[in-house]
Amino acid sequence: MQQSQHSDTGTGSWDQTSHYSSSSGNSSRSTSSSCSSSSSKSSSRGSDRTCSISTSYKVVVVVLVIVVVVVVVVLVVVVVVVVVLVVVVIVVAVVVVVVVIVVHCKLKVLFLYNREVVVVVVVVVVVVVVVVVVVVIVVAVVVVAVVVLVIVLVVVAAVIVVVV
């Protein structure tokens, strides 16, 4: 398609390719409104590509900001969960020690060294502590896996947006 420059003796005029010419002829400028319409496909194909690329980069920047925010939030949640679970494990361990001492003292008086009951109590408490520790580890692994998955998905999406 042929580009045409229109000059006017008044304030100036706009042609099809978005060039402005003033009456003096020395202030011709091009606008960067290539995102608005694509009426002349053959002449504005390069500008449409530029618009597409700049839009893609804006999308990628927004997506990366969202990923950073999500990762920070997830890491804060993981830290809080791990701290809470560690506190729970410590409390359970203290309770176990107290229960074993109290039960052992009571059993000495009541049952004259009935060791089977003490062994059962200790085994139950140890199992509870081990379960809590395993749950802490599993939760941490799951959260880290989710964070890695989110990061991978966002990077793949960003690459797809830039390429396409």
Automatic annotation (TrEMBL):
Biased composition (Low complexity): 17-50
Keywords, sorted A to Z: Membrane, Transmembrane, Transmembrane helix
Record keyword Membrane present: yes
Origin superkingdom: Eukaryota
UniProt keyword annotation of Zinc present: no
Chain positions covered by the region annotation Disordered: 1-50
Transmembrane feature ranges: 59-78, 84-105, 117-137, 143-163
Biased composition, class Polar residues, residue ranges: 1-16
Protein name: ABC transmembrane type-1 domain-containing protein
Record organism: Elysia marginata
